[in-house]
Write a structure and sequence with these properties.
Layout: H1 7-24, H2 68-79, H3 82-92, H4 94-98, H5 100-105, E1 106-112, E2 115-120, H6 123-131, H7 133-144, E3 151-155
Parallel strand pairs: 2-3
Antiparallel strand pairs: 1-2
Length: 179
C-alpha cells in the first residue's frame, strides 16, 4: 500500500477483510481480480474482461445507454402525469405566459380537468384577462402542448364574508356596500 494513505483507511480495509473471513471462512484473494470463478456456460470457453476503471470493474457492454430525459419522458407518459406536470408548469411560469405586469395582479388557482382557474386583484384586471383569453390559451398550448388547457375561468376579487361565529343569524347582510 501507498504510505500517503492514512492509517484509518488501512484499518478499515483490514476490518472488512476480517469480517469477510468470519462470514465465509476465507479471505478474498485480491490477486485474482478479473478472472471468472465458475466455468463458462458456453462450452468451457472463458471470456476475460479487462479491468477498465481504477476500482477494477469491467466496462458495461450491453445495449446503448439511453438519455435520462428520454427515461423521464417515457415514465411520465406511462404513468399519465403529463397533465399534472403541465399544470404545475403553467402555475410556476405564469409570469412567462402573461407577462410580469399582469402576473402581479393575477394568480393561478388550479387546473381541474381542462379548465384553468384564475383570480384577479380587481374586476378591471379580470375584464382585461377575459379579453386576452384567446392569446393566453394559444401561448399555453405552444408551451405545454395541445389539449391540456382548453378553457380559462377568470374571477375577480371576492367580497369579504360577514358570516362569523357559530351563532350567526340568517339575514339580508350588507346591502349597498359592494354593488
Amino acid at each position: 500500500m501507498n504510505e500517503s494513505q492514512p492509517d484509518a483507511i488501512r484499518a478499515a480495509f483490514e476490518a472488512i477483510r476480517r469480517e469477510a473471513e468470519k462470514r465465509t471462512g476465507q479471505v478474498p484473494d485480491l490477486s485474482r481480480q478479473g478472472t471468472p470463478t465458475r466455468p463458462a456456460p458456453n462450452g468451457g470457453r472463458r471470456i476475460f474482461r479487462q479491468a477498465t476503471g481504477p476500482d477494477g470493474r469491467s466496462a458495461w457492454q450491453g445495449r446503448p445507454a439511453t438519455s435520462l430525459g428520454s427515461i423521464f419522458q417515457s415514465e411520465i407518459q406511462r404513468r399519465g402525469w403529463r397533465r399534472d406536470l403541465a399544470g404545475g408548469w403553467v402555475h410556476s411560469h405564469w409570469d412567462e405566459v402573461v407577462g410580469e405586469k399582469i402576473a402581479q395582479h393575477t394568480k393561478v388557482e388550479m387546473l381541474k380537468e381542462k379548465t384553468l382557474y384564475i383570480t384577479c386583484d380587481s374586476t378591471a384586471w379580470a375584464t382585461n384577462l377575459r379579453m386576452m383569453q384567446r392569446n393566453i390559451l394559444q401561448t399555453i398550448a405552444q408551451r405545454v402542448g395541445p389539449d391540456i388547457v382548453l378553457e380559462l375561468r377568470i374571477y375577480g376579487p371576492q367580497a369579504p364574508s360577514w358570516r362569523k361565529g357559530r351563532l350567526h343569524i340568517q339575514g339580508r347582510g350588507p346591502r349597498d356596500t359592494y354593488g
